[in-house]
Amino acid sequence: MGFDIATLWKAPEINPVNGKARSIPVLNPFNKYGRVFFFAWFGFMIAFLSWYAFPPLLSDAIKHDLKLSQNEIANSNIIALTATLLVRLCAGPACDRFGPKVTFAACLLLGAIPSALAGTIHNALGLYFVRFFVGILGGSFVPCQVWSTGFFDKNIVGTGNALTAGWGNAGGGITYFVMPAIYDSLRTNQHLSEHVAWRVSFIVPFILITAVAIGLFTLCPDCPTGKWSERHLAVQQNLQAHGVRAEHVVDVPGNITDKKETGVTTPTSATEKRIDEEADLAKAKHGSFNHEATMSEQQMLDSARGEVVVKPSFKEAMNVVFSPQTLVVAACYFCSFGAELAINSILGAYYLKNFPKLGQTGTGQWAAMFGLLNVAFRPLGGIFSDYLYKKTGKVYSKKVLLHAMAVLTGAFQIAIGVLNSKSHSTMFGLMAGMAFFLEAGNGVNFSLVPHVHPFANGIISGCTGAAGNFGGIIFAIIFRYNGKNYGKVMWIIGVMTIGINIAVCWIKPIPKGQIGGR
Q1: Rounded to whole angstroms, how far apart are CA atoms 402 and 447?
Q2: What would the DSSP string read from start to end of 240-252?
Q3: DSSP string, 389-423
Q4: Phi/psi at 429 (5° precision)
Q5: What tens digit of pLDDT does each residue of 235-247 get?
Q6: Do 60 and 360 form a contact (C-beta atoms < 8 A)?
Q7: For 255, phi and psi rounded to 5 degrees?
Q8: Which of 233, 300, 307, 457 has the most CB atoms at less than 10 Å from its CB?
């Protein structure tokens, strides 16, 4: 069956166990799934816009006012990525413990404070300090993806994650238009000096971040079944309401147990009465189960056992962090998103070096296109990944697509670096081709992530997101020590991308014996 356009606004069909939607009501903010989808992508877009608010003004206004050297600017880019790396590592477990909505709002509010303090910067050290704490905003990617994964089922989660991340990442391109426009308006219309204008400009991101954080926290639920702290109880009640008597499948305090009883036990009348009462409660809560997907009893049990996020113990967290499957998605994201971050930071300078006649404004606008292409390219990766999964029924199809995208990305990066073209059409064409495979590859990656260790989605999302930032730091350091030899670094990144993907392509996408996520 083809795509039904009505799914863009009508109430979605839902998973009867965990309440996840099987379509995305993109145009229906009155529906809780559509509302969460909106705040997930819009919240991350505002975070990304504010996170990258410095680079558009850094190469001219801020550099001139603070008398910064090129190395000091490069150092500030690396410091900003370092903070995000640390926050993403912490945000993953925080999502599993406190819920993605609370973690998302916390990242936004904590990042808003240093954004407002940008006006207090007077030297390079102050720039390092503020950009480090503004980097907290980059950590909001993890709760954005965990929140999206929590609301959309396996058949559509790749598309949901790719849309929220892709539209959110576009903030990195939008900021190249927004921040200079605010700065120019303050200079031209308000007649502020350069020294004052760029400082006042950062009040706008502060207002936007704060408003969005308050909105998502007050208007959206923690998870489809209600409160985050009650998600296990809700799943247990949903099972019982559908006649699936599996009392020990979900351990309400937070562990998926599926315990086996020793000896022969006979349910007492009191136990049966309690189970019936819980089933009646679930039926009353959810009505007649309209818009539910049809699932077998075994599918319901697998969904309950393996796809409900648990509060991780240290041992469980370490098992997930150091599993080969986590290595695959982390290594691939190290290459793809790491390259995207590093290239975003230098692309305007690269274009200015090769095309000086375009000037700072012209090269900045062309550089913005690289980030803006996320609006279309990253979602396409997730959509095609979901399509392959639907046709094959195998998670392996997503993994094959992930590595194919990475190898093609590497090939384009090598071509860009070797040619180092001074032709507008050649350079911009190659960059657009590289952006397609790189950004679509990011979408494919976070289409695969929800299938791997789904009971610890926050941890694996945090590790994968942090790996992307680590890649950004490594590639930014390589750019830093190669000066303006941008072409050389581009082909180095291409070779690394192809090599790393070949090194991990043999690992199976899902751990042997994993329940759920298949």
Answers
A1: 9
A2: HHTT---TTSEET
A3: HHHH--THHHHHHHHHHHHHHHHHHHHHHHH----
A4: -65, -45
A5: 777 777 766 665 5
A6: yes
A7: -115, 140
A8: 457
Q: Among residues 118, 54, 43, 47, which one has the least CA distance to residue 84? A: 47
Residues 177-235 have pLDDT tens digits of: 889 889 999 999 999 999 999 999 999 999 999 999 999 999 999 999 888 888 777 77
Task: Assess whether pLDDT exceeds 60 at residue 10.
Answer: yes
The pairing of strands 250-251 and 255-256 is: antiparallel
Bridge partners of 324? none
Instruction: Give me the percent of the chain exceeding a pLDDT of 90.
Output: 57
List, in sequence order, the alpha helices (H) in 153-202.
Answer: 157-169, 171-188, 194-201
pLDDT tier at 272, thresholds 50, 70, 90 = low
149 closest CA partner among 189, 99, 193, 105: 99
**Dist CA 415 CA 436 (whole Å):** 15
Query: What are 98's two structure tokens?
Result: 């406190």
As given in the structure block, the two tokens for residue 125 are 């050290």
Contact 111, 47 (CB under 8 A): yes
User: Is 183:202 a contact under the CB 8 Å cutoff?
Assistant: no
3-state secondary structure 83-133: HHHHHHHHHHHHHHHHCHHHHHHHHHHHHHHHHHHHHHCCCHHHHHHHHHH
257 — pLDDT class (breaks 50, 70, 90): very low
In three-state secondary structure terms, 72 is helix
Q: How far apart are CA 277 and CA 93, in angstroms?
A: 34
Q: How confident is the model at residue 254, as a pLDDT?
A: 40
Q: Which helix (H) or strand (E) holds 255?
A: strand 255-256
According to the model, what pLDDT value does residue 454 have? Answer: 86
Is 256 strand, coil or helix? strand
Rounded to whole angstroms, the Cα distance separating 10 from 28 reads 7
Angle between helices 141-151 and 100-116 (to 10 degrees): 150
Residue type, 360: Q
Angle at the Cα of 231 (from 228 to 236), degrees rounded to 5? 170
